[in-house]
Design brief:
- With 263 residues, this protein is of the alpha/beta class.
- Helices cover 32% and strands 24% of the residues.
- It has a single domain, classed as P-loop containing nucleotide triphosphate hydrolases (Rossmann fold, 3-Layer(aba) Sandwich), CATH 3.40.50.300.
- It has a six-stranded mixed beta sheet with strand order 6-7-8-3-9-10, with helices on both faces.
- Keywords: ATP-binding, Nucleotide-binding, Transport.
- It holds the Pfam family ABC_tran.
């Protein structure tokens, strides 16, 4: 597929400074900072309970930080949300698959923020949905009930919803869980297209092979951002030991580190 023109102007996509999020007095994320430019695919890596989901929720405005700041495309988060600049692609396990909607209707939900109160689709909305479904190779299945899709097809449907929204920032929660090889290959090809278009993707993943195969940058998190930057410089045994404890990359010496003793 030929490269599309870059539609998103500006270089800065995500700026997080000293972000803190507490749940009823329990620290979920503490003084986390990171910066991502346009046209970046960034892996978000950490153990379960390390704060990955909380960081995503904060970037979407679903939780209120107790301190710190978030800017998207140089705008305060509230303004960026009004502009529909951030899209979230959830883990599909959290979805009610018996809900009586078809694939096209699910993708149309990505256009709701651009519609009037009656949510009557305009030609521009229908065209955005059509283009999104064609890009993820689901247009022939547009009338199928969402629960009737395979696991990989469901992932692509929610990716199409984010595409239809027109967001310049996409947050993807474990997008490769439960997908077949064909879907994984298609999704990686799409992610690389999005990068060329100037979008920024942050992908939460437990598959470390994906980090080195196509991600430009990585954020390592364990209640705070331990390290972030170019994958080649950040994705080291020492940093992984801080993140997971004792993990090492092939060919590098083991680093014994108890994450509970981290400074």
């Amino acid at each position: 597929m030929p490269s599309r023109p870059t539609p998103f102007a500006g270089s800065e996509r995500i700026a997080v400074l000293n972000l803190c999020v507490d749940y009823h007095g329990v620290v979920a994320v503490h003084e986390a900072s990171l910066h991502l430019d346009a046209g970046t695919i960034c892996a978000l890596v950490g153990m379960n309970g390390a704060g990955k989901s909380t960081l995503f929720k904060a970037l979407m405005g679903f939780v209120r930080p107790s301190a710190g700041s978030i800017a998207i495309n140089g705008l305060p988060l509230r303004q960026a949300r009004r502009a529909r600049a951030v899209a979230y692609v959830p883990q599909t396990e959290s979805v009610d698959w018996n809900f009586p909607v078809n694939v096209q209707e699910v993708v149309m939900m990505g256009r709701y923020g651009s519609m009037n109160l009656l949510r009557i689709p305009r030609p521009v909305d229908r065209e955005a949905v059509r283009e999104a479904l064609e890009r993820v190779d689901l247009w022939p299945l547009r009338h199928r009930q969402i629960g009737a899709l395979s696991g990989g097809q469901r992932k692509r449907a929610f990716l199409a919803r984010a595409l239809a929204q027109g967001a310049s920032v996409m947050l993807l929660d474990e997008p490769f869980n439960g997908v077949d090889i064909r879907t994984e290959k298609l999704m990686i090809e799409l992610f690389e297209q999005f990068r060329r278009e100037g979008r920024t993707l942050m992908i939460s993943t437990h598959d470390l092979a994906h980090v080195t195969s196509f991600c430009d940058q990585v954020v390592l998190i364990n209640k705070t951002v331990l390290a972030y930057g170019e994958t080649s410089s950040v994705f080291t045994s020492e940093n992984l030991a801080l993140t997971f404890g004792g993990l090492r990359l092939e060919g590098e010496p083991a680093v014994d580190f108890d994450p509970h003793q981290a400074p």
